[in-house]
Design a protein that fits this description.
single chain; 124 residues; alpha/beta; 5-stranded parallel beta sheet; 5 strands; globular
Length: 124
């Protein structure tokens, strides 16, 4: 049986560890990246069933995650993307929708809820 492949992109090591551990415990194969460049390299060699991307990947550009979402939408069109953010601005939500994000979740969302959203996307 093949496991579901998940790409996790977050610049915070503690979040990468917690999210990866949760999904691995639930039977996923998780590849984690700390930045857009590493994520793009992983996307170049593997196909993913779902991606979880943090909106803010560096201090320099607070929306670097949206650039990665655009890359995923252009190059891995069948991979749904969950965007993690600490912001709830209407402008951000509109920009995320325009980029083709399947779901936007706040970083305070429980891992069980993130897992439920991912499971729902995989059933589509």
């Amino acid at each position: 049986m093949m496991s579901t492949r998940l790409l996790l992109v977050d610049d915070e090591a503690a979040i990468r560890f917690a999210v990866a551990d949760y999904f691995e415990q639930n039977g996923f194969h998780v590849d984690a990246a700390a930045d857009r460049e590493s994520a793009q390299r992983l996307l170049g060699v593997s196909d993913y069933d779902v991606a979880i991307v943090d909106l803010r990947l560096t201090g320099a550009e607070c929306r670097e995650g949206l650039n990665l979402v655009r890359h995923i939408r252009a190059n891995a069109t069948r991979t749904p993307v969950v965007l993690l953010t600490g912001s709830d601005s209407a402008e951000l939500l509109a920009a995320a929708e325009d980029c083709g994000v399947a779901a936007v979740l706040f970083k305070s969302t429980s891992l069980a809820r993130v897992g439920a959203v991912v499971a729902g996307l995989l059933r589509r």
